[in-house]
Write a structure and sequence with these properties.
CATH class of the largest domain: Alpha Beta
Number of strands: 8
Distance between the termini: 44 Å
Number of domains: 2
Shape: globular
Length: 298
């Protein structure tokens, strides 16, 4: 099977590694320098047209431009392989594909597969979701191998939301670690963070079990255990008085805006948004969360 990967960063190269392990032919679409060690093409439209499945592995802010350039047609199958909502609009990345191209069959994939670990052939797993069973199964065939298990799901919205949430909640984990608050606080962030995302997921019509699986708990636990995970590393910098990069800030803002749109309270995501915007010091944000009114666990 021919797998086209749009994005030549670490994650794009990791996906190419997984595709090759699964016995497929992977090519990376790139702009600028060719990806060392992997077959590639600077012509994204041609690469897309020649691929049985296209994986989008660029940052959320670049998805719209890349889809406009790649121009997937009505017969294309496109899977979003990056985490987050579109900065500025807060839109779903899968909907960008269908609004900016003739492509109809889309999906998303996420989970505790870390680029560095994949390239070192360490075991990993992800979940591929799409309302089109064909797309989820193609993603499974494209990447499933002895070093990575791929599970399928029909809950596209839940998987996309889980990926977006983990990119924000991992910042909270990094903040807690940077403040040396202990492993107990890390566990609180993981469990209560997932609880607030479950509430939002229900409001969106997603399956609550999605967030308790690989896309939610699994991905967040992996992020919490990696100091160099993008979200965790950003949180560590913030705890030490650093400034948030624009990507981290916009991801947090998009999650909070989504919660407000559906009238769902997201205390942890809101705290991260305030810290990344420079409105609240990290220690004060944690104190504020701990002083919230007592309630029952739901």
């Amino acid at each position: 099977m021919n797998i086209g990967i749009l994005g030549s960063g670490n994650w794009g190269r990791a996906l190419a590694t997984l595709a090759a392990e699964a016995g497929n032919r992977a090519r990376i679409g790139y702009r600028g320098r060719p990806p060392g060690g992997f077959p590639g093409s600077p012509n994204l439209a041609a690469l897309t047209a020649e691929s049985d499945l296209v994986l989008v592995a660029v940052p959320p802010a670049a998805v719209r431009e890349v889809i406009r350039t790649a121009r997937p047609g009505p017969g294309a199958r496109v899977v979003i392989a990056c985490r987050g909502l579109e900065p500025g609009t807060g839109g779903w990345l899968s909907e960008i594909v269908t609004s900016e191209s003739a492509c109809l069959r889309v999906g998303a994939i996420t989970g505790p597969a870390i680029a560095n670990e994949v390239t070192h052939r360490r075991p990993a797993a992800m979940v591929a979701a799409s309302p089109f069973e064909e797309v989820a199964l193609l993603a499974q065939q494209a990447l499933h191998s002895p070093i990575c298990r791929i599970y399928t799901s029909r809950d596209l919205r839940g998987v996309e939301l889980a990926g977006a949430a983990v990119s924000v909640l991992s910042v909270a984990v990094g903040v807690a670690d940077g403040l040396k608050l202990g492993v107990g606080v890390r566990a609180v962030i993981v469990t209560r963070g997932i609880a607030e995302v479950v509430r939002l997921g229900r409001a969106l019509g997603a399956d609550a079990e999605t967030f308790r699986g690989l896309a939610g708990v699994g991905d967040l636990v992996a992020a919490a255990g990696l100091p160099d995970h993008p979200g965790t590393a950003a949180g560590l910098r913030l705890a030490q008085g650093g400034v948030a990069d624009p990507d981290t800030r916009t991801k947090a803002e998009a999650m909070v805006a989504l919660g407000r749109r559906y009238k769902v309270e997201l205390p942890l995501c809101e705290a991260v948004a305030e810290i990344t915007a420079g409105k609240l010091k990290a220690r004060l944000a944690i104190d504020g969360l701990m002083r919230r009114e007592a309630t029952k666990e739901v």
